Amino acid sequence: MLTSVYNLRNLVELTLEWHKKEDKAKYALSEEAWEAVEKIAGYLAPARKATTKLQRENLTLGDVFAIWTEMTIGLQKKNSSLAKTLLSAMSERVKAVQYSKKGRCAGEGEKTSPLFHYPAFNAAVFLDPCYFSLLTTEQITEAKTYLLDLWKRLQSAKGTPTPTVVAEESGDSGPDCDGVSADEDEVDFRKHLEKQNQARKVVTAASTGRKDSGVNDVAIILENYDRTAEFIPVEADVMEYWKKRKLSDPVLYELAMIVLAIPATQVAVERLFSCLRFILRPQRFGLSASAVEDITFLHANPDMVREIAKEVMKPNGP
């Protein structure tokens, strides 16, 4: 809002010229006040950009983590008391342990994990080659443990034993992406990400590749992915990345489709619940499981549905 007011400074001053002198004296801002507005808007620019980005659809947990990291880097560069206060609040929010029941002030209730430190988050970022280098060694270990347990639960739900699958190593750097312009904060974040990627390469290169006789189990598939996977550009579509590997890496593909689908923001959660409220009406309770799944998919992916509809409705050639 401050940015909008400053950008409309000429309009505000012109409007006040049309009013009475008393109104102008009461509401007009001095040159020092306008400079203060400009400075405050500049200090809060990284937060404003992050807020806008967090409103996008189809955000993954890796995207949210990247937006948060980019905002942190941008605020650190501002070196102002306002930016430092915001950074301090962000740091406290990341470390805070939430409570899902009553009695929060007394420290009662069921504890939930901090913002960026829980197994499902680590697993989602681990299977996102755009941002997996941002994870620490401890987070990577926790992600592997979570994914292995998730695979076992999947096979148990299907009523099938955990299969042994041969993991194919791939040196593919990911899909090609068109270059897009980036602002200063994005450039700094990408430099930070590149440093993390280089550090990750050093760590993974230190571990010698193992050639196991026979077939590999899921744990070794995860180890091979950690050791050999190449990062992809931040503009890449991670879903398309895994769809292209559906046949070569079926285990990782299935796990990625689950953890990358975790709602990353409250907006995404509300959107999904809205879909469920529309589907699970009394007159719809007789729908089969496959029909409910199809309807949920359509409402959760409106952009994809619109593109498919355009292709279907294209007029046929002569």
From TrEMBL:
GO terms for molecular function: protein dimerization activity. Residues 228-301 form the HAT C-terminal dimerisation domain. This is Zinc finger BED domain-containing protein 4. SUPFAM superfamilies: Ribonuclease H-like (SSF53098). It comes from the Eukaryota. InterPro entries: HATC_C_dom, RNaseH-like_sf.
